Each structure stands twice: as C-alpha cells, then as structure tokens.
Amino acid sequence: MTEKYAVVVIGGGAAGLAAALVLGRARHRTLVVDAGEPRNAPAAHMQGYLTRDGMPPAEFLALGREEIARYGVELVRDRVVDVARGEDLTGVEGEGFTVAQGEDFTVVLAGGRTVRARRLVVATGLKDELPPVAGVAERFGRDVLHCPFCHGWEVRDQPFGVLATGPASVHQVLIVSQWSKDVRFFLHTVAEEELSDEDLRRLAAAGVEVVPGEVAELVIEDDRLTGVRLADGTTHPRSVLFLAPRAVPQTGLLERLGAELHETPFGAYPVVDPTGLTTVPGVWAAGNAIGFAEQVVHAASGGYRAASAIVGDLLMTDLDAVARA
After folding, report:
1. Could you give the count of Cα atoms lying within 13 Å of 30 in the half-sphere of its Cβ?
2. Whole-angstrom Cα distance, residue 35 to residue 45?
3. What's residue 86's pLDDT?
4. pLDDT at position 103, please?
5. What are the Cα distances from residue 181, in Å, to 70, 173, 176, 250, 289?
6. Is 11 exposed, middle or buried (0-12, 13-18, 19+ CB in 10 A)?
7. Most buried pick, 218, 226, 229, 292, via CB within 10 A?
8. Which residues, listed in sequence order, are joined to residue 82 by a DSSP beta bridge?
9. How far apart are CA 276 and CA 263, in angstroms?
C-alpha cells in the first residue's frame, strides 16, 4: 500500500528542515526526502546566521535533522524523480478527517518508494555552474568565493580579484571593494567597451583596477591561490578570487506540476505568494528554489513561513469538510 503523509518536503537543506520542524511540532505526519546535495557544501563555514555564525554547514544540517526527529518527522536519503497530482481520494480518511477531492499528490522516489501527500514543500535549491577556468572548481568555497557577505570578513584586506561572468559582475566587484582596497577586476570574456561610463566612474571611485584580457588559469601554490594568469601569460598576484556562478534553478518537479515560472536575471523561478505558495494549489516552495539570493537564514525563514501556512490551510480544509458533511 502507498504510504500517506500530510506533507512531503522535497529537499533537506535549511528551508526543508525548517518547514519539517514546524510541521512536526504541529503534529502533521511529515516526510523529508533529502538527496544530500546542499548548495553550500563547498564552504567550510557559514556566516551571518545569528547564533550560528561560523558553524560548518554539515554540522548545522545534522543538528536540524536531530531536531525534526524529536517530533516524529521521517527523513529519508533519496531523490524525488517524479511527482504528480494524485487520483480522486474523496471519502478516504486521513488524519482524523476526510480528504477532500483532488487535494493529494503522488511522489515517486529514486529508490522505488511511492508515497502520497496532501501538501508539498519544494525546497530543491539550485546548482552553481562555474566558469570553465582551470583551478576555479577545485578552489571554489576555499579562496574562490561568490558571496562577500558570507566570506568577506574572513578574507578582508587581502588582494582580491573579481572574475567577470556577466552584467552583474560590476555590481559584485563594487560590493567586494568594501572588504579590501586592493581589488582587480578581470574582464575575462567581457569586452572593455561593454562597461558603461557610469560603471567606469564607479570602479574608479572605488579604486578598482580594471584588467582586460581572458583569464587562462589560477595559480595554485602550497594548496592556496597565489595568482590569476591571463591567456597572454601575464600573472597577477591575488590570494582571493570572487565570481558569480551561473545559477541553475532546480524547477523540474515544479514544472511537472504545472507551476508558473517567471524569468529573472538569474534564471526562471516559480511565482509564489508571500508564504511561498506556488500557482499550483497545495504546493509551496522555499529557499533557493524560489530565488538565487536566498541565504541560509532566508531559507530557514521561508521554510517556516511555508509550513505555518500549510498548517492553517490543512486545518481550514478539514474543518470545512466536516461542516459540509
């Protein structure tokens, strides 16, 4: 028989665990399906989360899994490979009330398990696609970084490089200049004439040196970044390199359900209301599943909001069903 849950949470990062915590405490049978691929896995520490500043991401998630287990939430290490609206379950008993028509979902796991849920939380995050420059992938999360709010304090006052990867790179280099006064902006595949007069004025005002030419590779010595080498052989001594990865939203499951997406400069993400409710009734999204800039603290907050909305939604649905009976 197919197992039935009040809620299935797809994704066991900060957003998914926060949602599961609220749902478990509200006494809803909840399943978290976690593929074990958090976006911040390359980072040794996470910063900016009040009372958890500097905590290793893996430790943070381990504590979260312990907390949800106290409330009977089930967590399985697996991957959701398909999801669909379930069949008509009118009249089937669930959690003390009669399940209303068409309000359930079927969730298929890679391991072969199939479960049903009355509501879904999609917290599948996103993937960071790095530029194909030799050394970047190997050093990402160490001395190749993407977020100065996450790592700027730890590398402050060192010689910075910023690798241009798109239109948002000018903004990035201006932001990181607050953590170091020695910043070089490597245009890489961006032509110098693509910079506007306003860009150039701001870069000059921030003391940023603009370096044209394609970057060939990073120079690594004694397991640390020591320089950025251009295709012409010129090497610039740097100990930190910032860049903006290409965000690849993980929206496949939401698209299968028919969720409406909207285009952003960082990819297409689901249209959601303030609680994370998508355009598909019964389906919420949270964390990096709704946007590129969601930090861990935002993701946890989004999961909490989604779960609290689901608790109210299930209650009102069930009470209305009783009232109509």
Report:
1. 31
2. 21
3. 72
4. 60
5. 48, 11, 9, 37, 35
6. buried
7. 218
8. 108
9. 17
**Consecutive H or E run containing 16:** helix 14-25
Task: Give the bridge partners for 7, in sequence order.
Answer: 30, 119
Q: Quick one: DSSP state of residue 154?
A: G
Compute φ and ψ for 309, nearest 5 degrees: -65, -40
Low-confidence ranges of the chain (pLDDT < 70): 1, 87-103
How far apart CA 98 and CA 106 sit, in angstroms, is 18
Q: Give the distance, in angstroms, between the CA of residue 70 and the centroid of all CA atoms in the same chain.
A: 25
- The span from the CA of 43 to the CA of 143, in Å, is 10
Domain ranges of the chain: 3-127+246-324, 131-243
Please determine, looking at this structure, whether the domain spanning 131-243 carries the CATH number 3.50.50.60: yes
Q: Which 3 state secondary structure label does DSSP give 194?
A: helix
Structure tokens at 257: 């359900």
- Secondary structure of residue 177 in the 3-state scheme: coil
Helices (H), 257-295: none
Decide whether 3-127+246-324 matches 131-243 in CATH topology. Answer: yes
Give the position of tokens 């930090």.
295
Overall fold of domain 3-127+246-324: FAD/NAD(P)-binding domain (3.50.50)
Rounded Cα distance between 192 and 214, Å, is 11
